[in-house]
Amino acid sequence: MALKKSYRIKRENEFQLVYASQNSVANRYFVVYRIVKEGQSHFRAGISVGKKISKLSVDRNRIKRYITQALFNHRDELPKEIDFIIIARKKTIELDSFGVEKNLIHCLNLAHLISQQEETS
């Protein structure tokens, strides 16, 4: 399932506003920039997967789908009044959907956007 359009950051000026906050955390696979936006009814997320990760759009779009799915799965745990941007790093290409979700949740936990949960298999 995908996130609704109202949950996405799409415009360049909105991306720049979040980048300008210089409030970021990172792990080996992702960088997350965040900014508090008062009065929002839900969070908004921007996803950036650059050509340095893969020249093939198929690979970049696959990573975006995995990130979007992870956000959809944890949408109720994310704070409402926040905008954030997720930037995938080069090593992200090595991950499957479970790995993307696990490492994204770890990075969101570092950003204090979500609390780490114990995964059971």
UniProtKB/TrEMBL annotation:
It catalyses: Endonucleolytic cleavage of RNA, removing 5'-extranucleotides from tRNA precursor. Keywords: Endonuclease, Hydrolase, Nuclease, RNA-binding, tRNA processing. One of its GO terms (molecular function) is ribonuclease P activity. One of its GO terms (cellular component) is ribonuclease P complex. It is an enzyme of class 3 (hydrolase). Its EC number is 3.1.26.5. The keyword RNA-binding applies. GO terms for biological process: tRNA 5'-leader removal. Pfam families: Ribonuclease_P (PF00825). It comes from the Bacteria. RNaseP catalyzes the removal of the 5'-leader sequence from pre-tRNA to produce the mature 5'-terminus. It can also cleave other RNA substrates such as 4.5S RNA. The protein component plays an auxiliary but essential role in vivo by binding to the 5'-leader sequence and broadening the substrate specificity of the ribozyme. PANTHER family: RIBONUCLEASE P PROTEIN COMPONENT. Belongs to the RnpA family. Consists of a catalytic RNA component (M1 or rnpB) and a protein subunit. This is Ribonuclease P protein component. It comes from Xylocopilactobacillus apis. The lineage of its organism: Bacteria, Bacillati, Bacillota, Bacilli, Lactobacillales.
